[in-house]
Design a protein that fits this description.
Elements (H helix, E strand, L loop, with lengths): L1 H14 L5 H13 L4 H11 L11 E2 L12 E17 L2 E11 L4 E6 L10 E12 L2 E6 L4 E4 L20 E2 L10 E19 L2 E11 L4 E6 L10 E12 L2 E6 L4 E4 L23 E13 L4 E5 L11 E2 L3 E2 L3 E11 L4 E6 L1 H8 L3 H8 L3 H12 L3 E11 L2 E11 H18 L1
Parallel strand pairs: 1-2, 4-6, 8-9, 11-13, 20-22
Antiparallel strand pairs: 2-3, 2-5, 3-4, 5-6, 5-7, 9-10, 9-12, 10-11, 12-13, 12-14, 15-19, 15-21, 16-19, 17-18, 19-20, 21-22
Length: 431
């Protein structure tokens, strides 16, 4: 710690030449004792003893590729490529956090502002008094209370061709289980379990992308390729220069024409068994193509026979669609449950097919047998589900209400053990 603090103390002394070094050290110890990070303590100490923004010694204008991650007061001229604002809860209350990407003639880097600096996509900026920090193995530009953001001349980066720039810094190899939202310039290896082509509309018009699932020995993750690399189902590939974005709480790997794709002939992955996660592991982020297991402890309202909007398929509330108003609904089946695995609870929505399998009857039979009585359908669901152990396989999305399981298969926990036991018996009999 002393090695990390020493250069910061030196900077404070340079900013406050008339203040005794022992006094500065005592103040720093006091802030660190209360858990305040050294860089923030530095600002507070300089302010306390009458220092100003000009008290900081600038390291001068830098290119993004020159940043090492230890610069305390750096100036850069950049173009904003993306900017996202959100509210972040901290020990000192809610703060406006702005994150995104910036570029200059040398490369693309992430930026983060804890002071709400609003950068507009496509605009050029002179950023004065920023810091370069290392976060998740990558150098990023950090803007604090002493950072000044000014408009740069429109022609400052007129020749900038973003498509030819490297993304972030050094490549970092990660296993799929360690893929997290925000990672950039990573190397991943895995087997493509499926891939499909689809067209989407972007600001620049129609675009063909390729969606699929890739797996290694540790996990299965969804991916999107924004370029046709001629990848096929079953290929084992190495992807260099991928980055991770989030869809409904699920981290997804993305890569474009700046990535390097290599097909690996002599590498195999054990991807047959679906990865099982606990509820406590899904609190921060969702997951794709996983399984969860636990006891069903509640059948939620909105289960059983429901009515859907014929226009958008949304469930009707009192005969009303939130988009299309009063509607003559289409009858459907679904089940909303709470699954508890001992580490936490997960909300799960079982679709028509799964609910039909559980009940042993479809929509029409439920309507005719129970005369549309929703209560009797829910009673039957409760009888078959409540207090029993189940395994669910599918995606887990996350929103403001927490993680939600969207299974494509549901089975009794003991049924799974029976399948494994039968498989083991078959092996023993062969031997």
């Amino acid at each position: 710690m002393s090695e990390e603090i020493a250069p910061i103390l030196k900077e404070i002394k340079e900013a406050l030449p008339d203040v005794d070094e022992n006094e500065i050290s005592k103040e720093m110890d006091r802030y660190l004792k209360y858990g305040i990070v050294a860089t923030e303590a530095k600002k507070a100490i300089i302010r306390k003893f009458g220092g100003t923004t000009q008290s900081f010694t600038s390291v001068g204008e830098k290119k993004l590729s020159e940043l090492q991650g230890n610069e305390m007061n750096v100036d850069v001229t950049v173009k904003c490529l993306s900017s996202n604002e959100r509210i972040q809860k901290t020990v000192n209350g809610d703060k406006t956090l702005v994150t995104g990407l910036v570029a200059d003639s040398t490369m693309i880097r992430r930026f983060v502002s804890w002071e709400g600096h609003l950068l507009e996509k496509g605009s050029n900026y002179c950023i004065r008094g920023a810091q370069a920090k290392v976060f998740r193995g990558e150098v990023e530009l950090s803007m604090g209370s002493y950072t000044k953001v000014e408009d740069a001349p429109e022609d400052a980066l007129s020749d900038l061709d973003v498509s030819k720039l490297p993304r972030f810094g050094n490549l970092m190899e990660v296993l799929l289980k360690d893929v997290k939202t925000g990672l950039g310039n990573i190397i991943i290896r895995g087997k493509v379990l499926n891939i499909e082509k689809r067209n989407i509309e972007t600001e620049k018009g129609s675009k063909t992308i390729f969606d699929g699932i890739i797996a290694d020995d540790t996990k299965r993750v969804r991916f999107t390729s924004w370029h046709d690399f001629k990848i096929e189902t079953g290929d084992v590939v190495s992807v260099k220069g991928a980055y991770v974005k989030e869809w409904r709480g699920i981290p997804q790997i993305n890569f474009d024409d700046r990535a390097e794709i290599e097909k690996l002939e002599a590498v195999e992955f054990d991807v047959m068994k679906t990865h099982r996660l606990l509820a406590e592991e899904l609190i921060e982020a969702g997951a794709s193509d996983v399984e969860v297991a636990g006891a069903i402890i509640e059948i939620r309202d909105g289960s059983g026979l429901i009515f859907r909007c014929p226009e958008c398929n949304r469930a009707l509330m009192g005969g009303n669609c939130s988009i299309h108003g009063q509607q003559e609904g289409v009858t459907d089946l679904r089940t909303k449950v709470v699954l508890d695995d001992g580490t936490g609870a997960l909300f799960a929505i079982l679709n028509t097919e799964i609910t039909t399998e559980i009940l042993g009857m479809g929509v029409e039979e439920c309507e005719s047998r129970f005369n549309g009585d929703e209560t009797r359908v829910i009673d039957l669901l409760s009888e078959k589900l409540l207090g029993k152990e189940f395994v669910m396989r599918g995606n887990v999305i996350r929103d403001d209400f927490g993680p939600t399981v969207l299974p494509n298969a549901v089975m009794r926990e003991d049924d799974e053990y029976m399948e494994e036991a039968k498989a083991l018996i078959d092996v023993v009999e062969v031997l």
